[in-house]
Amino acid sequence: MEYLSLDIPVHAWLGIDACADNAMAVDVVESLMESVFAGAAVREAGWRAASEYDGELDPFGWPPTQHPLRIVLRRSHWDWVLEQLDRWTPYEHGETLPAVRDFVRGELERS
């Protein structure tokens, strides 16, 4: 199993976390359990990385938006993240998700 670590600012991770949450909510209804389990692994990695921060947290329990989170995931989970960013971008009202997708893709290509 190949694991990759990426340093991702909290503001970017929140987009990934939201996509994972959305995907899990939809995919569990469709009994796509492999996707649900991947989403759980992705979200858990973010929570684990955020728990290492020992400063003041926002009202939702996250470090400051510019703080980098060291996210460790299997390569297959990073691929799932990219798929979900593509999947949920059409429903976004801003341009955050394409920028996050490009950032993650670029970091994975360097790894």
Tell me about this structure.
The longest helix is centred in the N-terminal third of the chain and has 20 residues, at 10-29. The model has no long low-confidence stretch (mean pLDDT 95). This protein has helices at residues 10-29, 33-51, 75-88, 96-110, and strands at residues 3-9, 68-74. The relative contact order is 0.23. A two-stranded antiparallel sheet has the order 1-2. It has one domain (3-110). Helices cover 61% and strands 13% of the residues. By secondary structure, the chain is α+β, with helices and mostly antiparallel strands.
Short account of what is shown:
This protein is an alpha+beta fold and 111 residues long. The protein has four helices and two strands; from the N terminus they run βααβαα. Helix content is 61%, strand content 13%.
Query: Which H/E pattern describes the elements?
Result: EHHEHH
Regions with little confidence, pLDDT below 50 for 5+ residues: none
Can you summarize the main beta sheet? 2 strands, antiparallel
Enumerate how many helices there are, as a single number: 4
Question: What structural class do helix, strand and pairing data support?
Answer: alpha+beta
Instruction: List the domain count as a whole number.
Output: 1
